[in-house]
Amino acid sequence: MSMASALPGPTRDHLDWPFFEERHREFAAEVDTFAKSSAVAAIDHRDVDGACGKLVKALGDAGLLAAATGSSHDEPLIDSRLVCLARETLAWHDGLADFAFAMQGLGTGAIGLSGSPELRAAVLPKVRSGDWLAAFALSEKDAGSDVAAMSCAARLDGDHYVLDGEKTWISNGGIADVYTVFARTGEAPGTRGISAFVVFADDPGFSIAERIEVIAPHPLATIRFENCRISASRRLGAPGEGFKIAMRTLDIFRASVAAAGLGFARRALDESLAHVRARPMLGGRLADLQLTQAALGDMATGIDAAALLTYRAAWRRDVQRLPTTREAAMAKMTATETAQSVIDRAVQLFGGRGVRSGEITEKLYREIRALRIYEGATEVQKLIVARELLKAN
Ligand SMILES: Cc1cc2nc3c(=O)[nH]c(=O)nc-3n(C[C@H](O)[C@H](O)[C@H](O)COP(=O)(O)OP(=O)(O)OC[C@H]3O[C@@H](n4cnc5c(N)ncnc54)[C@H](O)[C@@H]3O)c2cc1C
Known about the structure:
This protein is α+β, with helices and mostly antiparallel strands. About 50% of the residues lie in helices and about 15% in strands. It has helices spanning about 20-35, 40, 50-60, 65-70, 80-95, 95-105, 110-115, 115-130, 240-280, 290-320, 325-350, 360-370, 380-390, and strands spanning about 135, 155, 160-170, 180-185, 195-200, 205-210, 220-230, 235, 280, 285. The strands form 3 sheets. A 4-stranded mixed beta sheet has the order 1-4-5-8. Helix 3 (about 50-60) packs across helix 6, helix 6 packs antiparallel against helix 9 (about 240-280) and helix 11 packs antiparallel against helix 13 (about 380-390). The relative contact order is 0.11. It binds flavin-adenine dinucleotide.
């Protein structure tokens, strides 16, 4: 029996693809066992903040967060295939568990890439153990896709920076202990005048301006800096390097958004297969009808195409050690758009049950929507792919 068939659902043979080594298959099985454990089942998801904290701690206790943060703070290398497999598997089971895992990585990716040894040692072990929650603060009210429009500012004052302004749509905002924050330092206009910083939730001048509720409940907030004074040693990389650091971080984690989309889509397909086999229709079963079979054929083919792009991007980064800006953008837009359409087909196959509150299809329908928007909307991914093509000779 292959390791792949030990995982949930009938659509898991992609784990036998040549992108993976045995350790990847073993890790995916470990994450699956974790997601099915009674410790996770006991977490009450109605209290979203509390559930998120408990999920992060449980992931840390199970030793799974090393995949998101890197296993050593001296050399925090991230294996993209491990991150993608974790997200795909967690998303299959539970959108909030996927979110909890992903934010520990996205929130500290820039610290691993560009933090001083002292900052890495202070932050990464606590985030890896699940004792601290992490967040990534790039977006602003008027600077989402257009990062260059950022106005949150950091002014150098002796050996300190003083931060003023707001960031919005910040995942884990309100419950995070540590934030990677991007602010304008003004070395040059646009994206060349932005730097990256580490801010702690208890830094004076830092506050939560507003909590935000969205269709699939996750901790989210607008955060505020008012005369927030932090040591200059909390800057990541050189002054003016912040945009580059943000993009390098997103290059790693964008393919993992695709993987989360795959997890949601595979769950929708697995649930659809079970439903159409069981649902009586016209003297037979829903599965007997050719229109149903056409839907299943489209869903499965779309998922495999998206998975090939996703794991190609991760493999290229891990094994070929090549830039993956184009590949990650292709994977992110294809997997999230495909997942949306697969989940929509699943809702349709379920009929009225598909939209009933509490049904898995209804949850997946709400979970998938934001993935087409955050970490660069689909339209922005298309522009990234085109820009990479046009600059190649
Ligand atoms: C649930 C959720 C969680 C998030 N978490 C975080 C987080 O943790 N940290 C963080 O920093 N941000 C986070 N974000 C913010 C997210 O990254 C932004 O919402 C996203 O970048 C889009 O920015 P915007 O919302 O300002 O939309 P806009 O930038 O106003 O985009 C609106 C529309 O314009 C389109 N558009 C943009 N540029 C072009 C173009 N050149 N040509 C054609 N169309 C274009 C977009 O594709 C989109 O359809 C999160 C958002 C959500 C919804």
